[in-house]
Amino acid sequence: MRNKITYLLTCLIVSGSSLAQSVYKDNSYSPAERAEDLVKQLTLEEKVSLMMDNSKPVERLGIKPYNWWNEALHGVARSGLATVFPQPIGMAASFSPEALHTAFVAVSDEARAKNAVYSKEGSYKRYQGLTIWTPTVNIYRDPRWGRGIETYGEDPYLASVMGVNVVKGLQCLDENRKYDKVHACAKHFAVHSGPEWNRHSFNAENISPRDLYETYLPPFEALVKEGKVKEVMCAYNRFEGEPCCGSNRLLTHILREEWGYDGIVVSDCSAISDFHNAKGHKTHPDAASASSAAVLSGTDLECGSNYRSLIEGVKRGLINEKDIDRSVKRLLQARFELGEMDELSRVDWAQTPYSVVGSDKHDSLSLDMARKSMTLLQNKNGILPLKRGGKVIAVMGPNANDSVMQWGNYNGTPKRTITILDGIRSAMGKDDKLIYEQGCSWVERKLIRSVFSQCKSENGPGFSARYWNNTEFKGEPAATAQLSTPFHLCTSGATVFAPGVNLTDFSAVYQSVFTPRESSDVVFDFYCYGSVKLLVDGKEVKSFTNKHGSRPQAHGMRVEAGKSYDIEIRFQYFASDAQLNFDIGFKEECDIQRSVAKVKDADIVIFAGGISPQLEGEEMGVDLPGFKRGDRTDIELPAVQREMIKALHDAGKKVIFVNCSGSPIAMEAETEHCQAILQAWYPGQSGGKAVAEVLFGDYNPAGRLPVTFYRNLSQLPDFEDYNMAGHTYRFFKGKPLFPFGYGLSYTTFKYGKMKLDSSVKVGETAKITVPVTNTGSRDGEEVVQVYLKKSGETDGPIKTLRAFKRVRIPAGKTVKVELELTPKQLEWWDNTTNTMRTMQNTFDVLVGGSSQEKDLQKKTLKLL
């Protein structure tokens, strides 16, 4: 009898186990049901292993490994071949949410196609997954912040609209489809905009509730409620004393309770370490207490490895396993929603062909976005557009022939890049003459002149190469080659370094003898994704490993004329698509007068200057005059460029300044010394063509500034002051160099009288109609902007953007532009409830072509 009962119980257990397994493996169930079922079958150790970005497999249950970390800031990033769109701050200048949406549909196509290939290969590495940590919708509060280049500007409404369109373009949520395309991520929640150098210990404090809800939170709320974003990333810094990734106020009360968000919260990378590290916040004694606090606050997924200590946290009573279950269920549900847990053949999005990656169609979209981002700031005497025919045009400046600058940061690798020099050369008339003279670098007063031709190996000019199809340089080489020109090697698009060499898991040695013809300082200049060791005369002088995409590296040393130096470069594949660009050159002093003399015959000088993503960006190691760890300590154009432009002006040259930057540049002197100024941002793979089309009039610019361009540093409050007083056009009372929303065209627009009902009831939509006439001789686009100001208020925004529309108007024609102010757009701060809400108010409604008063007409609107 006992044996019979045991047998029946065993059958029931097996039957129950099989039934349970059939639920999570059966895609006829909802992702929530499948996740609920699966989490019950996991051990605590297995649950914890799934809560870190590099999630381990659970083979007994058929759970594959998964890496949650992927990037697509302006194109699929750090994973080889991809279409590279302009940097987000440039795309914000388009004021075209429709174009942005179209661009990110293309980006998500490429992400899906690349993931399908990786999955078929059984590869689950970083930058290969379907969870895309984009977009960055923090407010660009201060132009010194290096990561402002990743944002959509300084205005909460603009950042909200653009951010929502990024999310919708990426996720392509469709209730008629079984699976999600990819998942986007709103970052970095929420009060976070520099400085970079102290972000792991900085406390953003004493911030008024009004600034929090009126400025810092709106883009995140919009992405959660309107965009239906699937992930939110918490920030590094503290907010009012609590690390953002452990902030009950931000993550529990606001995000979960007020907004009803039930998606995944992921930590910024190593942010949990900052809770307890000596150089971090030091709010917690150890990893277990830090990790437990983060999960209890709502951070489900860690980018890092502190969460391994959650097992200890459970044992110590710091957290209950049911709290861990809640997070794990969210993570598993997301994976089921993406189809990542099912066979590829069953997931429609996984059938996206690889041919979309870097396709001609997507290149056209990148060019279109670059065109739309071009922002003309100055055009004295109508010098632009340039006329073709019989002209001598000089192209100068550190950004004229720099493709890497155009890619911005968090970027992929395009099939090809059209530099500004390339674009101008192609756009010139047949009988025009071009002179190229770089003249100066971004900041330093030295230039690098290539002397690669002074390298010779035993096999001939340049470097000899040996390749192994392993990462340890072991055995007989799989291939050899001779490189007679500077290296430009990349495995993007399934392009091997040499015939017979693997696309992955390979190593290489490059050898040559460098015999300089002069004594000077030489620079070994690298741009690579992988691991490099540089040896000179058998001694290792430089080594580095770039783990997060391609980055520049350099080594300098003094050499003597006629002396021979044995050079060896050892390269190892690291991850994703390998890249190795290398050149060797002498440093020489910038000679401004010599450069001016070289362009003495030029009718026009196009100076492509500004700065670079190698200087501004996320927590960088750059410390040069005007720059600190990726932030800027000075907002003026670097001195050597100012001096070059002034010298050209003093020599009587007509200078067209093309400024490439991801941040506002104070160009007060340049407005005097240049005939025209074009803000080109970091314009992506086709940016050089877009610049040339604007310069020669093949495209009529319509970009508008998403940030204020200040005159000088004295106009800015303290960088670490997070209160909004004095920050951005909404609170700045001075006179900027170029205001928010500003940009010129090759035609002119005249606004007719705005039509607006004098009053609407609370909860209703106010409708605006304004006729806009193109009074010029060519077709153009105008960005019609609507600002609100509460009548009689003295402590709120001077004005704040609440609607806009980019409109194409043929020459001589009038278009009646219709805009709406919905109840959401009519929300205002209520001091009595400390909330943003729609209520009885009287507003000044301001409509025009920029935020400056002279460009705006006003009507009064009452909410009854």
From TrEMBL:
Gene it is expressed from: xyl3A_1
Family: Belongs to the glycosyl hydrolase 3 family.
EC number assigned by the record: 3.2.1.37
Domain of life: Bacteria
Protein name: Xylan 1,4-beta-xylosidase
Signal peptide: 1-20
All copies of domain PA14, residue ranges: 458-600
Natural source organism: Bacteroides stercoris
Keyword flag Signal: yes
